[in-house]
Amino acid sequence: MESIIDDNPSIPSPTSLSRSSSISSSLPEEPSKRLPTSPPVSPLFDVRQTPTAGRAVFATRDIPEGSLIWRSNDLSLSVLLREYRREVCGQCFGYDRGRDLDIRDKNVGFVFCSATCQTQWREETGDIGIQAWTAVETLVKKRSKEDNELVETNLLRPTSNEITKAWDSVAVQAGLIRVARGSEATKQHRKALTKATQAPISPDKLSFCLSGILWHYTHPKEWPNILALAADPTPYHSTDDLAAFTRTYLHLLTILPPSLLPYVTAESLFVLSSRDSHNSFGIRSLEDEGSEFFGYGCWPAASYFNHSCAPNVEKGRKGRVWEFRAGKDIEAGEELNITYLSGEERKLSRVKRMERLRANWGFECGCERCEIAS
């Protein structure tokens, strides 16, 4: 993660990685003193609390058009949708217009665009991570895909109370599975484990949860940067979506290496869903205005920019890194905004943009472009 302006490459990096809200019109969040990390510090911008949009980013100096403002390489959790696993590099997210990539690692379920990417992925994932991905891939290969991973946006989201009840309902079985993984398992414990493995699986949710668990395991000191992100208290799109996550929790308890089990908790998996909900970036093709959607990920250091339908900061992905450049000359004191919409979505009418923003991020935009169109 870096903070840079092109005319001064010696500018130091910010010292922190979090922000409170990616929702332009959200209600103010809980007091920032509860957050475990501080806002980022940069000579280019600072982060301030606002009355209606949580924390927002403001320029502290004039920034010329094209200047590199921020570079974020802290991918903390992600998922490549199963249907693209043969076409998208598991390391750099490279894509060759739908062609299957040559280097396949069947054990872990990823393909790579080069031997360099494969080696880098294995080094960063580590032995425990490779064991974990192998266990998930083995489970998926044994089973057909029972769950429909497509999200229906017109369904009612479970309430906070319903979410609590759903996680509580699997607590006893989870406890039995943990014992079953040990040396003193009884028939009752083994039965709980068998029941979990026979339940319908959700491959993409398995990948999403495992990526976050491994990040927590390998970067424990950076976990507070996830906790500091804006939390969605009702992140599940439907009761079926919630049930798929609770089943995924039990699946992971049954198959992951023992050293990861302390990180596999209902609380940690809920944190991953609640922080990803309003802070994730889509992983798309780099041509055709990102028309191909491969998956999504969370880069905490990049998650504090608020949205505008007429942004003054342009974002672009280079491999696993997001770069943010001034889309025009920016004056000191201006808020720095990106757009949460893809290339094609930017062209939609105000009404259609509002529908997308409301469905995906839970807010209505009040930027200048939207006010003029209203």
Can you give keywords for this protein?
Beta-clip-like, globular, three-stranded antiparallel β-sheet, 2 domains, 35% helix, 11 helices, disordered N terminus, alpha+beta, 374 residues
How would you describe this structure to a colleague?
This protein has about 375 residues and is an alpha+beta fold. It folds into two domains: about 1-75 and about 300-374, Beta Complex (Beta-clip-like), CATH 2.170.270; about 130-275, no CATH class. The protein has eleven helices and twelve strands. The chain has helices at about 115-140, 160-170, 170-180, 185-200, 205-220, 225, 240-255, 265-275, 345, 350-360, 370-374; strands spanning about 45-50, 55-60, 70, 75-80, 105, 110, 280-285, 295-300, 305, 315-320, 320-325, 335-340. Strands 3-11-10 form a three-stranded antiparallel beta sheet, with no helix packed on it. Strand 10 and strand 11 (about 320-325) form a beta hairpin. Helix 1 (about 115-140) crosses helix 5 (about 205-220), helix 3 packs across helix 4 (about 185-200) and helix 5 crosses helix 7 (about 240-255). The longest helix is centred in the middle third of the chain and has 28 residues, at about 115-140. It is globular. It starts with about 45 loop residues before the first strand and ends with a helix.
